[in-house]
Amino acid sequence: MKTQQAKPARYVMVIDVDRCNGCGNCMVGCAVENNVSVPPADALANRGLTWMKVYRVGNDRPFPDHQTVCLPIPCQHCDHAPCIHVCPVTAVQRDEQTGIVGQIPERCMGCRYCMAACPYHARYFNWFTPVWPAGMEKTLNPDVGTRMRGVAEKCNFCHGRLDRARERAAAEGRRQLDPGDYVPACAEACPTGAIRFGDALDERSGMKDLLAAPETFRLLESLGTEPKVYYQSRHAWVRQVGRSRLARVRGFETPAGEGVTHG
Amino acid sequence: MDKDLITRGLDRTPLWKFALWLLPWALLAAWGGQTIRDMFVQGLYLTNMDNRFAFGLWIVFDLTVIALGAGAFFLGFLTYLMRQKDLQQVLNTAVIVGFVCYSGAILTLAVDVGQPIRAWFAFWHANVHSMLTEVSFCITLYLMVLLIEYVPIILKNRKLRLVPSFLVLEFNLHRIMFLFAGIGAFLSFFHQGSLGGMFGVLNGRPFAFREGVGIWPSTFFLFILSAIAVGPSFIMLIVMTVSRVARRPLVDRKVLTRLGRISGLLLSAYIVAKLADTGIWIFRTLPDSGFDAAEFYRHGLFGIWVLFLELTVFGLLPATILLNRRRRQNPRWLVAGGLLACLGITFNRLVVTLQTQSAPTLSFDTFMIYWPSLQEWAVMLGVVAYGVILYSLSYRYLNLFPREHELKTSSGRA
User: Fold this and answer.
1) Which range has the worst mean pLDDT, A27-36, B47-56, B83-92, B338-347?
2) Nearest beta carbon to residue A89 from set B116, B121, B291
3) Helices (H), A52-158
4) Strand A92-94 relative to strand A261-262: parallel, antiparallel, unpaired?
5) For labeling, which of A135, B95, B238, B292 is most exposed (least CB within 10 Å)?
6) pLDDT at position B140
């Protein structure tokens, strides 16, 4: 059923890094919602599938000044996404109505050029034939198609949920979604409320204020990719981690001695 | 039967010796073939590529052989369109080497993609903004051109010539070969460039990203220049190797030195362009995207020596050797210069492919290392073996070198 929204939306995610405790609930919620398969137990570490990867980042200072934050990184849904223009088979598209960057697994031929192009390493490849342990196939979400071996996949802001929200709204005679109608699984699963999500063009969503806050930043802004996943932290070093040049944050020219380590 | 297929007047090694030569290559090709089957059946997890190293040995191999195979289009262009008739002596070899390189690269690419059965989507769902689309179109079309250029060489076989229609076809194809040389040159210029453009357009990967002219990043032009610089050297090395194995002169000596000179001249131009490009990248492109060049060379495996080696040992040194007339006259120097040039392009393609992915972009991410799996080596070596077998068969049964008989007679060898 095709139910177009009256006004275009610009869905954004704002992750409060200071609230994230690295529990991984977002990753589990995402995997369950989107039928992300589990690779074999002996698979290499970098062969896993997860649409949301939580990095642990430290400030590289000794105790008692040592600080660590967890940084969940899904697809950043860039407005100028490097993965879109490289795909030879037009399997990656940006929806002009929502700003969501979607992947068409049935069209992907598995060349992995998009993965080489993504600066956030937010794309994953199906190295293995997806298999669910006996009984687990009953937990598969019927609203989301499973992917086959040999194709790339990534976060799509739970597009299946957007479709359902549109259908519900249409059934109620609404053309416009209300804030809260559509929330990705990771935001719903987060126990600390670190992940917030909404339409930045909808005043009622409260996103506009979050984006304008001084503690808000984006990853690798200088590359000009215009990501739609924003991060927040009241710690200056965390904000620097996200947007500064490598040499500075790596401690080679650290002005305040605020280098970082990756754990 | 075997003797009837060999061109009259040319002597070839006995069949048993030839079979013995082919045997190890056939075994290698069989190993590669078996591994390709495993890849299709079991999947790419048999490789050592992962989510960070999306491109591995096979892409390095593809980029390298396509650059080395550039001799086919460039020498065709020089012979037919620039009327450099003396290069005709090595043109058959250039065509076959080109065919081997391109067909090998396409085969490797077919193994490399996760869904090879969807390879045709590149034509059906073509994304006109993707450099890879352009590469897919051009290398497929150019392989057809190479096949058309290969057919007349095959049809000149002693037995096939007996079929009148083959002779007519061969004659007519030969008459319009300049047209295919032109089409080949056009297609090749573009896909050689697009292979470089593939990396240059990666605005999310500051190590690879380059500014450029219009829609083409500088790597587009650097890849064309480097490919046409080493293509003649590669053909020169092949001819000299065959000549050594067969223990007879196959082409005039001056043709080989000429190939060396062409390589030397173009390599010099390439180094100047590469230096300028590196300077712009360090002082303008990288600072604009918030990065510092030194960061990319601070990791153990890929130190500053990478850039130094590429520009000097694999750049200036072979260019100096190949531009020096006296050095060129000495076969050892000629081989050394050509070999360094070919190793240089291999090294360049390796750095462009692997260092781009090794270097982290996120400030808290780590530098990563990749080493190919045995299966990846097997596929690559299998494709190399296929090339050697095809060229060996062509050398035995086709008249690849028009002056071979004449040179053999004049040198007084049996």
Assistant:
1) B83-92
2) B121
3) 82-86, 113-117
4) unpaired
5) A135
6) 93
Average pLDDT of every residue of chain A:
89
Q: Among B170, B76, B96, which residue's Cα sits nearest to residue B394?
A: B96
Search chain B and give the residue with CA nearest A78. Answer: B204
At residue B179, what is the residue type?
A: L
What's the rounded Cα separation, in Å, for the pair A32 and A27? 9
Model confidence over A96-118: pLDDT tens digits?
A: 999 999 999 999 999 999 999 99
Q: What is the pTM of this model?
A: 0.92
Task: Report how far residue A123's alpha carbon sits from residue A74's, in angstroms, rounded to the nearest whole number.
Answer: 9
Sign of the CA dihedral B381, B383, B385, B387?
A: negative
Contact of B151 with chain A, judged by CB distance below 8 Å, is answered with no
Residues of chain B contacting A149 with CB distance shorter than 8 Å: 43, 114
Residue A157 and residue B352: Cα distance in Å, rounded? 33
Question: Residues B157, B163: contact at Cβ < 8 Å?
Answer: no
Taking the CA of residue A234 and the nearest CA in chain B, the distance in Å comes to 18
- The C-alpha atoms of residue B46 and residue B395 are separated, in whole angstroms, by 36
Give CA angle at A196 (A194, A197), nearest 5°.
155
Nearest residue of A to residue B124 by CA position?
Answer: A89
| Contact between B56 and A116 (Cβ < 8 Å) | no
Amino acid identity of B200? Answer: G
Least-confidence region, from A66-75, A185-194, B83-92, B294-303: B294-303
A:B CB pairs within 8 Å: 189
Task: List the structure tokens of A50.
Answer: 């997860």
Give the pLDDT confidence score for residue A212 in this predicted structure: 95
First-to-final CA distance of chain A: 46
Q: Does A245 touch chain B (CB under 8 A)?
A: yes
Instruction: Decide if domain A11-254 falls under CATH 3.30.70.20.
Output: yes
- φ, ψ dihedrals at B403, nearest 5°: -100, 10
Parse chain A into domains and list their residue ranges.
Answer: 11-254
CA atoms within 13 A on the CB side of A49: 27
Map residue B343 onto helix, strand or coil: helix
Residue B175 pLDDT: 85
**For residues B339 and B161, which has the higher predicted lDDT (pLDDT)?**
B339
DSSP strands (E only) in B84-219: 212-213, 216-217
pLDDT bracket for residue A246 (50, 70, 90):
low
Q: What is the DSSP letter of B209?
A: -
* Tens-place pLDDT, residues B168-197: 888 888 888 888 888 888 888 888 999 999
Tokens representing residue B218 in the block: 């500088």
User: B264 with B383: CB under 8 angstroms?
Assistant: no
